[in-house]
Amino acid sequence: MNRAEQEAYLREYEVLKKKGKPFFPYAVLKDSVMMMIVALVIVAMAIILGAEQGPKADPTTTTYVPRPEWYFFFLFELLRVIKPPELVPIATIGIPTICMVLLLLLPFYDRNPERRPERRPVAMTAGILTIIAMAYLTFLGASAGSPTEIEVEPPPQIAADTAAREEFEFGAQVAAQSGCLACHKFGENGNDGPGPELTEIGAKIPAEAISRSLVAAPGIMPAYGDLPPRKFDALVEFLASLR
Amino acid sequence: MPKLPSALRKPSKPGERGNGARRDGGGANGVEAEPHPVREKTKEGAIDVVGWVDQRTGASPFLTGLLLRKVPKGTNWFYTLGSATLFAFVVQALTGVFLAFYYVPSATEAYDSISHLTNDVFLGEFVRGLHKWGATMMIILIFLHMGRTFFFGAYKYPRELNWVIGVVLLILTLVMGLTGYLLPFDNRSYWATIVAMNITASGPVVGPYLADFLRAGSEFTATTLPRFYAVHMLLVPGLIIALIGAHLYLVVKLGTTAPPWLRAEAKPKSSREEKVG
């Protein structure tokens, strides 16, 4: 916007302002009506939906699949959509940071003096696409359940032996209850990312490496070294047998 | 006819017509003839107080300028979203004070203090609901307000700085959502915060430091909750209030935009001629 355009805008604004009405009572009346509506909606939501209190925070549980407040769902979903571990920081920090900087600096790179939406095709397209993308990610994040079951068939040699089969199922249960499904896919269950798919993890890395990963917890993965030894061993054995 | 007790009456100066005691003795006639002394005094007193304050603050031109300033032609319901957001913030501040009366920011007692507030305190559960859903409303209203500003091109000259302040306010409000989420200290809050802090720590350059600052260390400990509490109810609200002040100052100073489709029908040149003429 050059100097002449700025002055033209200020002149035009001056005229429109002169033709306007005083803030009090006209704008104040509209504002007050809107505030009343907001107050009624908040009161209605507080009465109908209330504020539930979940079970007390338990740092030792490993079965809880955390979910953020709904307005962070789009970030949550972004985290799940982007799979490769080396790209995870980009999803969690990079993209939101870039979006925030772009939002913050909007008036400085959008130098178009035009204000009518129909004459700002680029800005309108970008704005509408952003809204659609955020709404879509929020919807996906909201509809993603918190799965607590792993239905993987044991390999034949384990399926044949009853004791081994029971051990396998116990391990699967530990994995499901430990929240692995929040970030890993097991066959048809779980989320595809941000962690790698574990359907055939046993074929890729040996049991000791699995055990080390569980304790060291690379990246954003929580550590599972605190699991009771019985559960931990079953979990490692279960994962190592996935081929 | 109400009379001031003699103790409250102004003692008359020497030479003035009568004092309180003599006027009482003078009978009803004399009093009825002149204007009611108490009512007059009260009226004068009220005017005096306004005048006294005004003389010392110079507030009245400011207030009349604020209230009677013109808003441009075409100002419609979309322009109420900003004040509605402010209203939601005020709801959060007031309900937040109420919650702070009962909340104990300690890892061992926080959960029980919320239970007590929810189950025993009169209207406690209702106020918690107001705070929770007020937060949701505030986020929705901020986004709507920002959408209006974007689609109306209201972030353009001369209001660029107010857009920047608005985006910072949006970020601070999201920080409020994040820090407030931990305070009930149930499983949901705890684990969501663990994840959020792990994500923060994975950020480049400042990420680990920011996470360490928020957690009060490299791990989530008993010190983390008081820190989130202080950030949630002192640090960030202070910043929000200061920035809302700056935001409103600029709104009043620069004026709200007219809807972009409105044109002053006179050409700029002729409007200048009008001014000259």
SSE inventory with pairings:
The complex is a heterodimer of chains A (243) and B (277).
Chain A: H1 3-18, E1 21-22, H2 23-48, H3 73-81, H4 88-104, H5 106-109, H6 121-143, H7 156-160, H8 162-177, E2 185-186, E3 189-190, H9 201-204, H10 207-216, H11 229-240
Antiparallel strand pairs in A: 2-3
Helix pairs in contact in A: 3-4, 3-6, 8-11, 10-11
Chain B: H1 20-25, H2 28-33, H3 37-57, H4 59-68, E1 70-71, H5 81-102, H6 110-119, H7 124-151, H8 160-182, H9 187-201, H10 207-215, H11 224-254, H12 268-276
Helix pairs in contact in B: 5-7, 7-8, 8-9, 8-11, 9-10
Question: Can you characterise this structure?
Answer:
The complex is a heterodimer of chains A (243) and B (277). Chain A is 58% helix and 2% strand. Chain A is an all-alpha fold. In chain A, strand 2 and strand 3 form a beta hairpin. The longest helix of chain A has 26 residues. In chain B, helix 5 runs antiparallel to helix 7 and helix 8 packs across helix 9. Chain B starts with 19 loop residues before the first helix and ends with a helix. The chains are: A mainly alpha (243), B mainly alpha (277). At the A-B interface, helix 1, strand 1, helix 2, helix 4 and helix 5 of A face helix 4, strand 1, helix 5, helix 6 and helix 7 of B. Strand 1 of chain A pairs antiparallel with strand 1 of chain B, so a sheet runs across the interface.
